[in-house]
Write a structure and sequence with these properties.
Blueprint (H helix, E strand, L loop, with lengths): L5 H12 L12 E2 L12 H12 L10 H5 L2 H14 L3 E5 L2 H11 L6 E5 L4 H9 L3 E5 L4 H13 L6 E6 L11 H10 L3 E5 L24 E6 L9 E5 L1 H10 L1 H4 L6 H16 L1 H22 L8 E7 L1 H13 L2 E2 L1 E3 L9 E6 L6 H17 L2
Parallel strand pairs: 1-10, 3-4, 3-5, 5-6, 6-7
Antiparallel strand pairs: 2-8, 7-8, 9-12, 11-12
Helix pairs in contact: 2-11, 4-11, 5-6, 12-14
Length: 379
C-alpha cells in the first residue's frame, strides 16, 4: 500500500519527524481528555433512557434524510423542546456540531455579505466559509475593538451587505470566554448577526446550562449552536434562532438536505439530557466544584493561573516535548492529550486538560502533583 501512494507515505513520514503524527488511542485512565463535562456520556441516566426509548419503539436509525421519510417524531419533539429551553423561535437538529457549523456558514451568509470571525474560530466554521459565497475577514481573538475596525474598513471599501460575526462562547483549545456583552453591543449597533458557537459552554455556563449567550438568544439577530456531544453526553448539534433562518437551512443547507437524519434514539436521549439540565442543578454544581478545585490546585502545585473554564491549556511549545509529557502522564493513568498544529498555532503545542464530570477532587489533585514534576523536569 505504501508503494502505491508514495506522496501520502512521504507526508506521513514528515509528520512523524516533526512530532505531529496522529494515531488513534484506546481509552485508558482518568478522563482529562474528553468533553464529557457533566459525566453524562457513560452515566446511568442516559443508559436507562436508551433502554426506555427502545422499549417504547423509538427507532435506532432514521432510514433517510429528514425531507425523505427520515423525519421522526423524536426529532420534532427535541427541536420544540430545545427552542423553548434555549429561548429561541426555532431549532434544527443536525448530526453533529461540525456539520451544523458548516451548514450555517455555507448557507446563511449571502454573496455581498461579510463573515467576521474570531482568529481562533473552529475549523468547522472555516470549512463552512470556504463553501459559502460571502467575504470572510478575521479579527484578533476576543478583541472587540479590532472587530469594529474590521467592519469600518469593510464598509469603507464598499461593503454594504449583511455582517455575520462568528465567535465561540468558550474556545475549545484556550478555555477563554468570549466577551459576549461587548460583541452583542457591536452586533446590535452594526445591524449584524451574532453567531455564537456554544459547544463548550452548553451545560456548563449560563442559567441551567443554557450557554453564555442565553440572555440574548431570543433576539432575532442572534443565532446559536449547541453541541449535543459534549456536556450533553450524546451526539448531534442544535442550531437555535429565528424561524426564517431555520427554514432557510432546511431548504438550502446541503449538509441537511442530502444527509441521512440523525438517529431518532439520539434525539430522544438529548431530550433527556436537556430535561436533566432543567431539573438537576446538583449535577452542574458538582462539575463546577471540580473546576474550581482544579483552578486552585493548578495554581498551588504548578504555578498555573488565569484559567476561566473547564478547559485548562498548558502550553509547552515544542510538539515532540508536548507529546512526551502527555505520554508520561498517560503512563500514570491520567488521560491527557497533547494538542499540536494545525489544531493550534505553530509553536503553541499544549496539553489540553479537560475537567470532566467523572473526576474526583482527589484524582484532580493527584494529576496536578504529577504534572508539577513534569513541568519542573522540562524547565
Amino acid at each position: 500500500m505504501t508503494g502505491a501512494f508514495p506522496r501520502h507515505a512521504a507526508a506521513l513520514e514528515t509528520l512523524q519527524k516533526r512530532g505531529r503524527f496522529r494515531q488513534l488511542m484506546p481509552r485508558a485512565g482518568h478522563d482529562f481528555a474528553s468533553n464529557d463535562y457533566l459525566g453524562l456520556a457513560a452515566g446511568d441516566l442516559l443508559k436507562g433512557a436508551a433502554i426506555e426509548a427502545v422499549a417504547r419503539g423509538v427507532p435506532v436509525g432514521a432510514g433517510g434524510s429528514r425531507l425523505l421519510r427520515g423525519n421522526d417524531a423524536e426529532h420534532c419533539r427535541l427541536e420544540d423542546e430545545a427552542a423553548a429551553f434555549f429561548g429561541t423561535e426555532a431549532a434544527l437538529f443536525m448530526g453533529g456540531g461540525f456539520n451544523a457549523n458548516q451548514a450555517i456558514f455555507s448557507t446563511l451568509p449571502q454573496q455581498g455579505d461579510l463573515v467576521l470571525y474570531d482568529a481562533l474560530i473552529h475549523a468547522s466554521t472555516h470549512d463552512g466559509m470556504r463553501l459559502g459565497r460571502a467575504e470572510a475577514r478575521k479579527f484578533a481573538h476576543n478583541d472587540v475593538k479590532d472587530a469594529a475596525a474590521q467592519i469600518s474598513d469593510w464598509r469603507a471599501s464598499g461593503g454594504v451587505g449583511q455582517i455575520w460575526i462568528a465567535i465561540e462562547a468558550v474556545y475549545s483549545m484556550e478555555g477563554t470566554l468570549a466577551p459576549i456583552a461587548a460583541l452583542a453591543a457591536l452586533a446590535e449597533t452594526q445591524s449584524a448577526v451574532l453567531v455564537v458557537d456554544e459547544a463548550h459552554a452548553t451545560g456548563v455556563f449560563g442559567d441551567q446550562g443554557r450557554g453564555l449567550a442565553h440572555g440574548i438568544a431570543h433576539r432575532p439577530w442572534v443565532l446559536s449552536l449547541h453541541t449535543c456531544g459534549k456536556a450533553l453526553g450524546v451526539c448531534g448539534g442544535l442550531i437555535c434562532g429565528a424561524q426564517v433562518l431555520i427554514e432557510t437551512l432546511i431548504n438550502r443547507a446541503r449538509g441537511f438536505i442530502f444527509a441521512t437524519a440523525p438517529s431518532p434514539l439520539n434525539a430522544a436521549l438529548v431530550r433527556v439530557a436537556l430535561e436533566d439540565l432543567s431539573n438537576n442543578p446538583a449535577r452542574r454544581q458538582r462539575a463546577w466544584e471540580g473546576i474550581e478545585h482544579a483552578h486552585a490546585e493548578a495554581a498551588r502545585l504548578c504555578g498555573l493561573v488565569g484559567f476561566e473554564s473547564q478547559i485548562l491549556p498548558v502550553v509547552l511549545g515544542d510538539d515532540a516535548l508536548c507529546m512526551l509529557v502527555a505520554e508520561t502522564l498517560q503512563g500514570q493513568s491520567f488521560d491527557i492529550r497533547g494538542i499540536r498544529p494545525p489544531t493550534v498555532p505553530r509553536g503553541t503545542a499544549r496539553l489540553r486538560i479537560s475537567l470532566t464530570g467523572t473526576l474526583t477532587k482527589a484524582v484532580i489533585t493527584e494529576m496536578f502533583q504529577g504534572l508539577a514534576v513534569e513541568l519542573e523536569a522540562v524547565k
